[in-house]
Amino acid sequence: MIAADLIKKIRKIEIKTGKMVNEVFAGEYKSVFKGRGMEFSEVREYQSGDDIKTIDWNVSARYGNLFVKKFIEERELTIILLIDISGSQKFGSQKSKIDLAAELSGVISFSALKNNDRIGVILFSDKIEKFIPPKKGKKHCLRIISEVLSTKAEYGTDIYLSLDYLNRVIKKRSIVFLISDFFDTDYEKLLKITSKKHDLILVNINDPLETKIPDSGIFHFVDAERAKDIYVDGRDYIFAERFAKSERDNFKHLEKTAKNMGIDMMNFYTDKPYILPLINFFKSREKKFR
Predict the structure, then answer these.
(1) Cβ pair 223, 230 in contact under 8 A
(2) pLDDT digits over 250-275, tens only?
(3) Where in the chain is the domain with CATH 3.40.50.410?
(4) CATH number of 4-34+75-288
(5) H helix or E strand, kind and range, residue 203
(6) What whole-number distance in Å separates Cα of residue 219 and Cα of residue 46?
(7) Measured on CA atoms in the order 89, 111, 140, 37, is the torsion positive or negative?
(8) What would the pLDDT profile of 173-220 be if each residue is shown by its tens digit?
């Protein structure tokens, strides 16, 4: 039985994100992602002006003449939400990171629904918590939001493991949104491999208190992934700055890694609206693929 407060929260996200999709995001989603998925159809003889990247060298060698592969646009796309639900996702100075992740999942899910695409989800912490295979339908989208909000995980984050699992269970090229605060290390190798196999997009969720401690007294933090209490005196500038610097460095490293690998990345904050950043991302991505 789903608790009444959870049903209320799911319904609120459904109304909010459904309205956004209908009024703003559906057109942006379609212009960005439709046409990116292509599947092999047949080969034909090479013609002047054809992209040499499409040459099928095996067939060409067999027949002694150049042949190119023909592709057709896939009728539907597969979207995968790879969502970090580890202990740190419960944190948020105004809204928790997991609540923001659920809302973003709602926008993406209902955009996929409106465009007749399939969507699935992999929830992870330091292990795979749940895998919901890609499907269509409103009921399926609501289940995704429900699972994001209700699946419990108490421990750390293992992005390497989550990407490895994704690559093993999702064989077809998909659009993958990796939603996390990226409190982890040593996953870059799998990030690169995954970006070659899938259309990978990083969604970095942050909270302002993680990068800037107010100078207004002692703050009690709980490291939810290690079950440790941390006390920070915001008036002790050196200590507070050292505490916040590690998170800023983590963000810079992630941003640099994504840029070097040619992976698209979005940044969201729990205390700020996500509508405009999402629109801007879609528009910049559309220009990129023109």
Answers:
(1) yes
(2) 888 999 999 999 999 999 999 998 98
(3) 4-34+75-288
(4) 3.40.50.410
(5) strand 199-206
(6) 67
(7) negative
(8) 899 999 999 989 899 999 999 999 999 999 999 888 776 665 666 665
